[in-house]
Amino acid sequence: MKSKTANTLRAFLIELVIYSLLVVIYFFLVLHLLGESLYGLEEHHRYIYAFTAILLIIGQAVLLEFVTTLLLRLFSGRSE
User: How far apart are CA 6 and CA 11, in angstroms?
Assistant: First the structure.
């Protein structure tokens, strides 16, 4: 039982590190590529900005979950 708990904790920590790294990369990528456009939307079209921000959040969640799952499958040969 202890070994299974250790393996689960190890997998969780690996996933946490990978996901954290991907979130930071995603943040700077969006900031670099869309920062100026998003700022213009915020200044002049708040409702479109809010909708765009929600779409980016949803897109981030889906994309990062997919990439994290793919990486975990490649590294450990399993998926949840």
Answer: 9
CA distances (Å), 28 to each of 21, 23, 34, 35, 78, in order?
Answer: 11, 9, 10, 9, 30
Task: Give the burial string for 15-29 (b: 16+ CB within 10 Å, else e).
Answer: beebbeebeeebeee
pTM of the model: 0.67
d(CA 50, CA 74): 36
What stretches of 1-80 adopt beta strand conformation (E)? Answer: none
> Which amino acid makes up residue 61?
A
Mean pLDDT in residue range 57-77: 81
Give the C-alpha separation, 40 to 55, whole Å: 17
Q: Which residue's entry shows tokens 């670099």?
A: 32
Spatial CB neighbours of 66, under 8 Å, sequence gap ≥ 6: none
